[in-house]
Amino acid sequence: GGGLHLSGGYDGLVALENNLFLGNYSTRGGGAYLYTVQGAITVANNTLAHNYTTGDTDQNDGGGLRIETYFPQGVVNLYNDIFWTNTSDNGLGGDFYVDDNVSGVGSGATVNVCNNNLRIFHCRVGDRLVTNGNLYRDPLFLDTNQANYRLRYGSPCLDAGTNLSTRGITNDCD
Fold it and tell me: How far is C-alpha 56 from the chain's CA centre?
């Protein structure tokens, strides 16, 4: 991951909350790369913008974010995130890519993608993929030329998330 590479080990918890990943690049997971064997990964209330993957490997996907679970017992939760203009050289998962069963044994892990703003994502197996309440619109940032990624009045992302889906986070800046 260009901005962050984080592993939850065998059955640990990886939580990525309230961050801005901006303009990072890597061969895997331009903004961030998260991995667990069979634990849980939660990504909530983040903004990932203008990140990209590049290179000539077959795994240069997940322009904004790449997540891997080795076994199908893993759980991936993406809630209330804004993905914007992230790209991937190989075209898979411009905003994010989830390999929900690296081992290839059995079904994919549970993957919940709810109340995010995103355009292009890919889930490799995807048989336990749940999507709900996602937007596909310009988030209307205040001033990206000045790196101000707060939301402008009238943004479709204002109050579009839900507090019920996050791990006890009750305050939202926008």
Answer: 22
